[in-house]
Design brief:
This protein is an alpha/beta fold. 37% of the residues lie in helices and 18% in strands. The protein has a single domain (4-144), classed as Rossmann fold (3-Layer(aba) Sandwich), CATH 3.40.50.9100. The structure holds 1,3,4-trihydroxy-5-OXO-cyclohexanecarboxylic acid. 1,3,4-trihydroxy-5-OXO-cyclohexanecarboxylic acid is lined by residues 12, 75, 77-78, 80, 101-103, 105, 112.
Length: 145
Amino acid sequence: MTRTIHILNGPNLNLLGKRQPEIYGADTLADVEAQCRAVAAEFGLECILLQSNHEGQIIDWIHEARQVAAGIIINPAAFTHTSVAIMDALNTFEGPVLEVHISNVHKRESFRHHSYVSLRAEGVIAGFGIDGYALAMRRMGSLVG
Ligand code: DQA
């Protein structure tokens, strides 16, 4: 049984740390990866962090995760609010799915209040900054044993 958790990130998150730091903070995706790796190790898990600005790439990575991942942590970024295709792809994945948003999407514009991915996710974390990823990894450790 695989012990790897895939952490998938959607568009513009490659600019984390530079993009709107008043909303998303000063930490980078490399910081996210380091924090998640430390938590994963506590549970005997490994993790892989991936980011793409392209919807189809994220869908392909979800399909690949079907073979090799125990769980998926996903911040779909703007695709959260638009992508039936990412939701459909996640529905082909049998392990747990946790959704993370760095900002509190419910405090922001109304178009950010709806998430297609939440229709699939076991849990959602929003508004905890990048700590949300490590918290999701801790929850993942409980879910996958
Ligand atoms: C986000 C929230 C989304 O609404 C936004 O489009 C993002 C990032 C977050 O992490 O807070 O790009 O997913």
